[in-house]
Structures are given as C-alpha cells and as structure tokens.
Amino acid sequence: MPRYPLRDRLDLFQVQRAAKRVATEIGFSHHAGEELAIVASELSSNVIKYGKGGVLELSGLEDEHGKGMILIAHDSGPPFRHLSMAVQDGCDDNGPIDPATILKRGGFGAGLGAVIRLTHSFRVESEPDGKRVIAIRYLKRPSTRSRRPGRAR
Predict the structure, then answer these.
(1) What's the average model confidence in pLDDT over 126-149?
(2) Which tens digits make up the pLDDT trace of 39-67?
C-alpha cells in the first residue's frame, strides 16, 4: 500500500492528487473522487496539526462489500480524549470549539465529521506509538454500515 509522508501542509496536495488517481483507477465517478480527495486531505491535515506528523496510506480494496478505497492515517500523537466529541461538527476531542479560536486553529472542527459523511466505514485504532484512523468508501453503498467510531487508548 503506497505511503505518503505527512510533515507539513504542502503534503496535502500530494495526497489529494493520489486519492483522485486511485479513485479513478478503482472506477469511482469524478464527484466521488473529489470527495475522496477531501477525505484524504482531512485525515492528513489532522495528522499534521494534531498527530505530530505521520503517514497516509491509500489503496483500492475488495472485500465482502465489493470494491472500494481504503485510507489509513497513522500518527504519533496522543489518543483522542473524547472521540465521540471529535467527530461532531464544531468540536474537537475536548468539546465545542470556542469561536474566538477558529482562525488560530486553522479549521472549523468539521473534518472528522466530513470523513464520516463521505465514507462507509470509519474507525480509530491504537498503535504502540500513536493511533491510526481508517476510512473506507465503496463503489456501492454496503447494505450494512460500519460507522462506529473505534476507541483509541
């Protein structure tokens, strides 16, 4: 699975292009490819801002739900304090974001929520030196949804 290093915001352009390319190779529509580029960008941006750097892996997959694309963001940052809060728009992993800090933070707190809305499966797993966030989107919506946020320890 190709790995893209995430060190600074310029790396976001590379993962966006890669996501669009892989999406096209799998057979996603242009619109779906653009949405997957957003997912790649949001996951990568979080790694850069909060995870102290890391990598994004992305590739095609085929499983019991059909063909799709998997994106795995690895970082060496701390675990989510409250994942259930982090996935809500307007919140970070500690709760609602103070509107006075929005410009300083470089985001509105809608990234993980967008990832969940644009994919069919989302989970977080602990790693020995950090965590990984895994998102999958299938060509066709699976009959069962796996949207339960995992718990990072």
Answers:
(1) 83
(2) 999 999 989 988 788 999 999 999 999 99
Report how far residue 146's alpha carbon sits from residue 135's, in angstroms, rounded to the nearest whole number. Answer: 10
Q: What are phi and psi of 41, to 5 degrees?
A: -65, -45
Cβ atoms of residues 110 and 88 within 8 Å: no
Three-state secondary structure readout of 59-84? EEEEECCEEEEEEEEEECCCCCCCHH
- Please give the Cα distance from 77 to 99 (Å, whole number): 24
* Backbone phi, psi, residue 58, to 5°: -150, 140
Tokens linked to 95: 């709760």
Whole-prediction pTM: 0.86
- Which has the closest alpha carbon to 116: 139, 76, 88? 88
Under the banding of pLDDT at 50, 70 and 90, the label for residue 70 is very high
- Average pLDDT of the residues in 87-115: 76
Q: Nearest-CA neighbor of 88 among 70, 115, 106?
A: 115
Handedness of CA 47, 75, 115, 65 (dihedral sign): positive
